[in-house]
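Reply to dn_fold:

You asked what the input looked like. This is it:
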Amino acid sequence: MGKLKCFEIILAGNKSVFHPGEKVCGKVVVDLKGDMKMRSLRIFMRGVAKVHWTESRSTGSRLGSYTEHYNAEVEYFFKRQVLFGGEVSEGRDTLTEGRHEFSFSFDLQMGGIATSFEGKHGSIRYWLKAEMDKPWSFNHKTKKAFTVISPIDINKAEYQLCVESSIEKTLCCWMCTSGPISMTARSDRRGYCPGESIAISAEFENHSSRTVIPMATLYQTQAFFANGKSRVRRTKFTVLTENQNNIYILYFCKLLHTSNAPDHERDCIIPVILYQVRAITYEKKTFLQKIVIREAIPRHIFCMHSDPSVTLLVKIRFLMFHQGYCSVLAFGT
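and this is what came back:
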C-alpha cells in the first residue's frame, strides 16, 4: 500500500450494536511511512435496504429464455464528516509521517430505520466508510459494519393477547362420507422472547372413523418485495407431535437468536421475516388441514421484559400491501 501502513475505523468501546437515537462514535486511525498529500480524509455513515433476485423467462420462440432481475433499494440515511483537509482542495494538504487518530461522531435517527437483516434475496445493512481523496491517484478506503436494533416493550397489553383460529374438515371417499374433524387452536399470547416457549392449546373433535394425530410446526418465512413482485422462502424449523392434554409447546430459543428482523412499522421495500406456528391434524401421512395460528414477526434482539436474560421479541401483526411495497406489515390467515 505504499506509504500507508494502517488505515482502519475503530468504534468507541469496540461497540458493534446500536439502537435508534444513539451516537455512533469512534476514531479513524491512519499510520503513514512517509508524508502523504491528499485533498481530504472523510468518513461516511450509511444505512441501506436492498432486495435482489432473478427469474428465468421464456421468449416463446427458439431463442430460448432470458433472466429477469428484480431490484429494490431504500436508503435510510447518508451522512458524512470531513476529518482532514476540506471539501474543495487542490491536494495541497499533507498528512505527515506517523500515526494519526481522527475522532468522529454521528447521531442515529430515532425513526425511519429498520433492524439489521441478512437474507438470501435481500439485506438491511449499516456501515461506516472512511476515504482518503488523493490527487491523481486511487483513493484509499476502509469500511466498518455495525448492527442496528429497534427495541420494543413486550409487556404492552397488545402483545399479551392470545390468538385463535379454527377449522372443520369432512372426509369423504366416493359415496361414503364420514363425520367432520374439527380443531380450534390458540396461542397463549402474541409476543415472545428467547428462553420462552410458544404454548399452543388445541381442541380436537373427531367424528370420523379415522384416527388422527395432532402436530405443531414452527416455520420461518422470508418475503422480499421489488418492482411490484415478491419472492418468498419458507423454512420449517420444528415439528412436534407429542401431546399432553392437548397442550403443545414449541421451544425456539436458539432458532431466533440468529434471525434479526426489520422494524415493519414504516413504509419500505425491505425484506420481511415471519415466524408462523401451524397446528395440523393428519391420518398416517396424509395431511388433512392446516390451521394457521397467524404469523409472528421478530422485531429485534433487545426487548424489555421481567427476565433480564431475555433479548428478543416475536410479535404477531397483520400484513398490508401498498402499491407492491410493505407498509404496515402483517399476514392474516
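Residues 111 and 135 are 38 Å apart (CA to CA).
Hope that clears it up.
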